[in-house]
Design a protein that fits this description.
One of its GO terms (molecular function) is NAD binding. This protein has helices at about 10-20, 35-40, 50-60, 70-75, 100-105, 125-140, 160-165, 175-185, 200-230, 235-245, 265-280, 280-310, 335-345, 360-365, 375-380, 395, 400-405, 420-425; strands at about 1-5, 25-30, 65, 80, 115-120, 145-150, 170, 195-200, 320, 350-355, 370, 385-390, 410-415, 430. The protein has three domains: about 5-200, 3-Layer(aba) Sandwich (Rossmann fold), CATH 3.40.50; about 210-295, Orthogonal Bundle (N-(1-d-carboxylethyl)-l-norvaline Dehydrogenase, domain 2); about 300-435, Rossmann fold (3-Layer(aba) Sandwich), CATH 3.40.50. It is globular, with a radius of gyration of 23 Å. The strands form three sheets. Strands 3-2-1-4-5-6 form a six-stranded parallel beta sheet, with helices on both faces. It is α/β, with parallel strands linked by helices and about 425 residues long. Bound molecules: 1,4-dihydronicotinamide adenine dinucleotide (NAI) and uridine-5'-diphosphate-glucuronic acid. Uridine-5'-diphosphate-glucuronic acid (UGA) binds near residues 154 and 327.
């Protein structure tokens, strides 16, 4: 069977390669010429563990191809996945759905046979209904079309595995025929006992933003508690372990530190906040606003602590920053706490040197004027302070003596509350976390 993936960024590239892995003939559509060129050569435009090998293999075999033509995509297959970006709107908190709307508008006139458009992008509730109206209006006579919303829950750094083995699938549909066809399409993924939730458009759209907002709330909650721990002399890591043993709470997403970033959690939280406001649900709007504010505050807090550690004067101070990606396992620096904090220090006159195992190139694109080093120890040469901002394993495994030998002052701030502070202290360092002993 043939299928298309419209929009080949972090989500779409993984989706396209994984659908080829499941045995489908896949055509990916991407409008960015630089990305398209890479994709056509079988090179992933983003770093994601396991993705580049899979992509190269399927491009080589011809099972996976790429185009920038909506006409070709419309005629290629009958199931079309919409993986377009939905960034935060330039003029407010809401989501910009123009890429999705463009795709539906340009794909619909070229559809053939009996086509289904399957939205995977994260959108404000009400978008699918609107897209279905556009689709109905633009579908050529004699062609059958339908729209489904199938939100995506994959995590970057685990994207391939999460796509091939998701923990649930949600289908927002308006017809049983479409549900049946989607179940058939996803049959290789729908494992025995894996929950499949079939629902309406609005619920499917809301499941996605609710899930991300809940995860964000957990993180902001523990970070707010970390500040209490700091004030009271308690340890937030031991606290999170203790509450996490309760199954009803769980330890996941209770990692404290500089907070959440990335291309999704922050913008989805804000878009949901905005939509809740539009729908007149003020309590939710206020709650989500607080979650966002607490998260932003973690970055300021880390900045203030860093400044205090070097005696209050950033101008001319040398600061090593370990990590640029918004989390380990990716080269994605969108709304990254590490890069935001590094950028702020740089703008205030500090000489910042960053090392990130995979996100160096994407970070340079965003902040070309900061310093970059090829390894964690080199980043620390002559540093007055080392900031651990993204918890790549290489930073946990670093040779403390080697770092001690190159720094100007032995000072460490662990912004992810994950390093063994006592080991650093034993080597003569002033080492601190956020809300931690
Ligand atoms: N990145 C992730 O881990 C996840 C993302 N999502 C959602 O999936 C959607 C896509 O996210 P990402 O892949 O991260 O965004 P992205 O920005 O990396 O990818 C979007 C891609 O679409 C392309 N594009 C833009 N306009 C186009 C058009 N008119 N026609 C064809 N292609 C076009 C862009 O050039 C880009 O490559 C968003 O709604 C996001 O919230 C959902 C779950 C996970
Ligand atoms: O919609 C999306 O794009 C995706 O957003 C998140 O996935 P992702 O952004 O890849 O990363 P997470 O692992 O959720 O981490 C998000 C941020 O929270 C931070 N985080 C995570 C966990 C934690 O305990 N503490 C914490 O600060 C991470 O450092 C990172 O900055 C969700 O986990 C996915 O289910 C969802 O599909």
């Amino acid at each position: 069977m043939r299928t298309t993936t419209i929009g080949c960024g972090y989500l779409g590239t993984t989706h396209a390669a994984c659908m080829a892995e499941l045995g489908y003939d896949v055509l990916g559509l991407e409008v960015d010429p630089a990305k398209l060129e890479l994709l056509r050569q079988g090179i992933a435009p983003v770093y994601e563990p396991g993705l580049s090998e899979m992509l190269a293999r399927h491009v080589e075999s011809g099972r996976l191809r790429f185009t920038d033509s909506y006409e070709e995509a419309g005629q290629f297959g009958e199931i079309h996945f919409l993986c377009l970006g939905t960034p935060q709107a330039r003029d407010g908190l809401g989501a910009d759905t123009s890429q999705v709307e463009y795709a539906v508008t340009h794909l619909a006139p070229h559809l053939t046979g009996s086509a289904i458009l399957v939205g995977k992008s994260t959108v404000p509730v009400g978008t699918a209904e609107r897209m279905a109206d556009i689709l109905d209006f633009l579908t050529p006579e004699g062609v059958e079309s339908d729209l489904a919303w199938n939100p995506e829950f994959l995590r970057e750094a685990h994207a391939v595995d999460d796509t091939l083995r998701p923990d649930r699938i949600v289908f927002g549909v308006r017809s049983e025929t479409t549900e049946k066809r989607l179940r058939e399409f996803f049959a290789p993924v729908i494992d025995h006992g894996m929950p499949v939730v079939v629902t309406d458009y609005a619920t499917a759209e809301l499941v996605k933003v609710t899930a991300n907002s809940f995860l964000a709330t957990k993180i902001s909650f523990i970070n707010a508690v970390a500040e209490v721990c700091e004030a009271a002399g308690a340890d937030v890591v031991a606290l999170a372990d203790a509450i996490g043993y309760d199954d009803r709470i769980g330890r996941k997403m209770l990692g404290s530190g500089v907070g959440f970033g990335g291309g999704c959690l922050p913008k989805d939280l804000r878009a949901f906040q905005h939509r809740a406001g539009e729908l007149g649900v003020d309590h939710l709007m206020t709650l989500l606003g607080q979650v966002d504010a607490i998260n932003q505050h973690q970055r300021d807090r880390a900045l203030q602590i860093a400044k205090a550690m070097i005696g209050g004067r950033l101008l001319g101070a040398r600061i090593a920053v370990w990590g640029a990606a918004f989390k380990p396992g990716t080269d994605d620096v969108r709304d990254s706490p590490a890069l935001t904090i590094a950028g702020q220090l740089h703008l205030r006159g500090a000489k910042v040197t960053i090392h990130d195992p995979k996100a160096g190139a994407t970070a340079v694109e965003m902040f070309p004027t900061m310093g970059y080093a090829d390894d964690p120890v080199e980043a620390c040469r002559d540093a007055d302070l080392v900031l651990h901002m993204t918890e790549w394993p290489v930073f946990r495994e670093v040779d403390i003596d080697a770092v001690s030998a190159v720094v100007a002052r032995k000072q460490l701030l662990d912004g992810r509350n994950i390093l063994d502070l006592n080991a650093w202290r034993a080597a003569g360092w002033t080492a601190r976390g956020l809300g931690r002993h």
